[in-house]
Specification:
The protein is of the alpha+beta class. The chain has two domains: about 120 residues, no CATH class; about 100 residues, Nucleotidyltransferase, domain 5 (2-Layer Sandwich), CATH 3.30.420. About 30% of the residues lie in helices and about 20% in strands. The protein is built from six helices and ten strands. It has a three-stranded antiparallel beta sheet with strand order 1-4-5. A three-stranded antiparallel beta sheet has the order 6-7-8. Strands 2-3 form a two-stranded antiparallel ribbon. Strand 4 and strand 5 form a beta hairpin. Helix 5 packs across helix 6. It starts with 7 loop residues before the first strand and ends with a helix.
Length: about 240
């Protein structure tokens, strides 16, 4: 139960719902039921009691949601039934076991919730961000001088894969794209090289916007997971494979 309406998504109010009786024999009406979501798992049919001052949850309600609850002297754990993943580890406080959990406030944006099991939807959202990215080939280079080799190999490979010839490429005016090695290859293949004017990235807007989207989404994933920035390549690679 919770007194915070903003903790619940898909809240359905029930004017004729039951009452909750406290130890002092006072009672409060259950105003409705919704889904409680912290990003790792969700609990459905969670009661909303308007004047409740604390959030209460029963072990049975967790286990009914296909979760496993374990206790030891200092900690409590909420995990999957097979114990392969621990969602919450909470410290005992004066013989009480409060759940150390940050709830998602408000109703989440339904970017992929409609087709995914609720208790894993936000886990996949954090892993893959939004699913409206287009598929992208990304190559990570230590030096700009590696660009020519990677580009030539990519063009050769993609022509075999899709069984069509590459007719045109577009790039900025950087020396990694405008050099004798690449120009010789493109001339031999009959590929037109469209070079944008210097300092005008708006002429290559699709690539620039998509690159920015990938970089910002990768940074968000790393920040949320508290991972070091040197893993940005793995993060970008994960995003580009959608």
């Amino acid at each position: 139960m919770t007194g915070r309406k903003d903790f619940l998504c898909d809240l359905k109010l029930s004017p004729n719902a039951d009452y909750v009786t406290y130890v002092n024999n006072s009672n409060s009406q259950i105003r409705g039921y919704g889904t409680l979501n912290n990003g790792n798992f969700s609990i459905s049919h969670f009661a909303y009691v308007a004047d409740l001052k604390h959030n209460l949850i029963s072990v049975a309600q967790l286990t009914d949601s296909s979760l496993r609850m374990e206790f030891c002297k200092k900690y409590s754990y909420v995990m999957t039934e097979d114990r392969k993943e621990c969602f919450i580890k909470s410290l005992c406080n004066k013989n009480m076991f409060p759940l150390d959990v940050n709830m998602i406030i408000g109703k989440p944006q339904h970017c992929l919730l409609s087709k995914v099991v609720p208790d894993v939807s936000w886990l996949w959202h954090r892993r893959l961000a939004h699913l409206n990215f287009r598929f992208t080939w990304v190559f990570f280079l230590r030096l700009k001088s590696e660009t020519a080799t990677e580009l030539i190999n990519f063009i050769k490979g993609i022509e075999v894969l899709i069984k069509f010839r590459v007719r045109r490429i577009r790039s900025d005016n950087g020396s990694e794209f405008v050099n004798s090695t690449i120009e010789k290859f493109l001339t031999e293949k009959g590929i037109n090289h469209n070079i944008i004017a210097p300092y005008t990235p708006q002429q290559n807007g699709v690539v620039e916007r998509h690159n920015r989207t990938l970089v910002e989404a990768a940074q968000s994933m790393l920040n949320y997971a508290n991972l070091p920035l040197y893993l940005w390549a793995e993060s970008v690679s994960t995003l580009s494979m959608q």
